[in-house]
Amino acid sequence: MQPLEVVAAVIEDAGEYLACRRGPGRAAAGRWEFPGGKIEPGETARQALVREVAEELGVGIRVTGHLTTDDTGGIRLVCLMAELDGERPTASTDHDALEWVPRERLAGLDWADADLPAVRLLARPR
What we know:
The protein has 126 residues and is an alpha+beta fold. It has one domain: Alpha-Beta Complex (Nucleoside Triphosphate Pyrophosphohydrolase), CATH 3.90.79. The protein is built from two helices and seven strands; from the N terminus they run ββββαβββα. It has helices spanning 45-57, 116-123; strands at 4-13, 16-22, 32-33, 36-38, 61-72, 75-84, 95-102. Strands 1, 2, 3, 4, 5, 6 and 7 form a seven-stranded mixed β-sheet that branches. It is globular, with a radius of gyration of 13 Å. The model has no long low-confidence stretch (mean pLDDT 94). It is an enzyme of class 3 (hydrolase). Belongs to the Nudix hydrolase family. This is 8-oxo-dGTP diphosphatase. Its EC number is 3.6.1.55. InterPro entries: MutT-like (IPR047127), Nudix_hydrolase (IPR020476), NUDIX_hydrolase-like_dom_sf (IPR015797), NUDIX_hydrolase_CS (IPR020084), NUDIX_hydrolase_dom (IPR000086).
């Protein structure tokens, strides 16, 4: 069976990264993730990410590069680096909390399994 193709935005702003906590009633509720969602047929990962972030967070982003692609538990998660195109988001349709986290605090959150490879890359000492 093919993994579910999902894309996530690793949004950096002023040295902090946007972490979103999954809301009640959702898979992995209460765990943190980078915002994003399913890649629809005919979409590139970049197109899907821009659409998903606009739908979930009501903000625009610019994709600046690829961080990692990993298969975890039936999900292929493509993590793309991004920057905001405007103000920081204040709410989400899919999450009950948004937090801007400095690199050194990323590993301290309870991340969804699929996001852990990206968190490990970001949290590595430079």
